């Protein structure tokens, strides 16, 4: 028995409906659809026919650098410090006698230079002259009495010789010879002489003189003013030498040879420099011997000769000037100087191996100030040290050397200032 398949009229009529719908579309819309279809077909064709990408070998970039060849050498490590210039000697002038100020020297003014022994001011000396005359008279009287007693003693001695007495004690004999009276006369004369000497000293003290060649710092009295013994009349300081007290931290002390140590009688050279670049030579003459309790530093004293340039040429170094100090250190063997800026974090730097590639190198260096670092471990003679900045480099990076110098040449160039420059200036005509 055959089974008939039901006919779906709706499905059968669907294509005809779509065609009918397309036929009903406007011609413009149909054209747009056709264009899109063609464009998609062309794009697919072009993508399928594209050429294969070319395979190119990546050539590593070669860095061009400057290097320094390590050369170990004995070096002196300078130490930097700072301080304020002070006079070697500063004196407070006081009146030793009382009286009215009768005269003030023209040189007794702030900032004036005075010679040793120069009279700065004079106090009224009339009373002191009178006292000197009185003591001179007392001396004359005492001297006359002594002569008289010597005469009486001579007469008594002659009488004793002519008329000797038996069984006379030594005390009685001394009395008969007027020995007590003679001793008293001598004592009175000595007392009178001492009074006259003191009167002469007091008279001389009415003139206050400069104790040494120096400069007046301050004057505190005026003409006609009454001063008492012990009154401050002014201050002055020496100008032949000046001093600078310089603090040195404990980690810098091993770099220095200081006076008074087992190293002998040494006086390290110092260059003092002010804020505008003026320089003065100096010497370390002493150290204070003990560490400061608060700062834990040792103070050393640098001495400058003729700071006010009274007998030499150059800039005046005034008291109170703040200066930086470059102190010559002791010699340390087998050091390699390198610029500070090439040292990387962790005391590392780049070296170039025999294959022209960068390699990391750990080093140990002395702690110093300035532009240079001094390596005492981690570098050997002949090692090539990278001087150029290579921030993105890694170990093994290929490099090409542009210029090559020795570390000795680097150090000579860095020492164009400081002690060496001062030496050049002093040798110039």
Shape field: elongated
Distance N to C terminus:
140 Å
Number of helices: 7
Residue ranges: pLDDT <50 for 5 or more in a row?
1-13
CATH level-two architecture of the largest domain: Beta Barrel
* Rg calc: 51 Å
Mean pLDDT: 83
Spell the H/E element sequence: HHEEEEEEEHHHEEEEEEEEEEEEEEEEHH
Q: Quote the beta fraction.
A: 25-35%
SSE class: alpha+beta
- What is the CATH fold-level name of the largest domain? conserved putative lor/sdh protein from methanococcus maripaludis s2 fold
Task: Describe what you observe in this structure.
The chain has 4 domains: 110 residues, conserved putative lor/sdh protein from methanococcus maripaludis s2 fold; 94 residues, Elongation Factor Tu (Ef-tu), domain 3, CATH 2.40.30.170; 60 residues, Beta Barrel (OB fold (Dihydrolipoamide Acetyltransferase, E2P)); 81 residues. By secondary structure, the protein is an alpha+beta fold. 29% of the residues lie in helices and 32% in strands. The chain is elongated, with a radius of gyration of 51 Å. It contains 7 helices and 23 strands. A 6-stranded antiparallel β-barrel has the order 3-12-15-14-13-16.
Task: Write a brief structural summary.
This protein has helices at residues 9-24, 27-48, 126-162, 170-176, 179-204, 407-414, 419-427, and strands at 63-69, 73-76, 79-87, 90-94, 99-104, 113-114, 119-123, 207-209, 214-219, 226-227, 232-238, 241-249, 269-273, 279-291, 297-305, 322-327, 331-339, 348-352, 358-362, 364-366, 372-377, 384-386, 399-406. It is of the alpha+beta class and 429 residues long.
